[in-house]
Write a structure and sequence with these properties.
alpha/beta; 12 strands; 223 residues; 2 domains; 4-stranded antiparallel beta sheet; Arc Repressor Mutant, subunit A; 5-stranded parallel beta sheet; 8 helices; binds calcium ion; 42% helix; Rossmann fold
């Protein structure tokens, strides 16, 4: 998921970012209420983690502004103040969940995950090519109903193939898209990854999906 963390304590913000990234989320930080509000209103986040005590604009005001813009993005409020009134105020203004500092990181991750699942029901997208299915939210792949274990990179490569079915993808295009880098010629990393992926998705199936296009690159197609 793409997550915005609005937290002015740099150490906490950094800790949350690193932790969420380790869980495979994409994280942006905002360090004050105004920046947080601006970024939240951009509408590009799946979940917003919002501290209440913030410079420039407090979290409750930011939340009010997010909700009055019509956005239903799940918001997890973080606050050092644990009083009941704050909790009620936060939830009244449209927060989806609430966590009192100091909190255990495992608890934080569990809350974020649960908010993600809530939107997941609406936003999850399944991509299909033949009997291959990808869930773009959970980043899981199945072939013939059987789940396939993939690394992050392999999943990204597979999704790229699926989104470009019947199109030739050159090694350069693949390396630029998946590694955001054009490898020097002579590096065979793209081949290595494509072969790993083939072993996982095509080796047990009679119908091969990933094809080599001689002299050009690769193509996903139904044979
Ligand atoms: Ca704060």
């Amino acid at each position: 998921m793409k997550i915005l963390v609005v937290e002015d304590e740099k150490k906490v913000a950094r800790f949350l970012k690193l932790g969420l990234e380790a869980e495979d989320h994409q994280v942006d930080n905002a360090y004050d209420g105004e920046a947080g509000e601006r970024m939240a209103l951009s509408g590009q986040y799946d979940v917003i983690v919002l501290d209440i005590m913030l410079p420039k604009k407090n979290g409750i005001e930011v939340l009010r502004s997010i909700r009055s813009s019509g956005s239903a993005t799940p918001v997890l409020i973080l606050t050092a103040k644990g009083s009941l009134e704050d909790k009620v105020e936060g939830l009244d203004k449209g927060a989806d969940d609430y966590l009192v500092k100091p909190f255990a990181f495992a608890e934080f991750i569990a809350r974020v995950r649960s908010l993600g699942r809530r939107i997941g029901a609406e936003k999850s997208t399944t991509l299909k090519v033949a009997d291959l299915e990808l869930d773009t939210l959970t980043r899981k792949a199945k072939r013939g109903g059987k789940e396939i274990e993939l690394t992050n990179r392999e999943y990204a490569l597979l999704e790229y193939f699926v989104r470009n079915v019947n199109r030739v993808l050159t090694r350069t295009v693949i390396s630029e898209h998946i590694w955001e880098y054009n490898f020097d010629t002579g590096t065979n990393i793209v081949e290595v990854y494509v072969n790993k992926l083939r072993n996982k998705i095509d080796s047990d199936s009679e119908k091969k999906l990933i094809h080599t296009v001689r002299g050009a690159g690769y193509m996903m197609k139904i044979d």
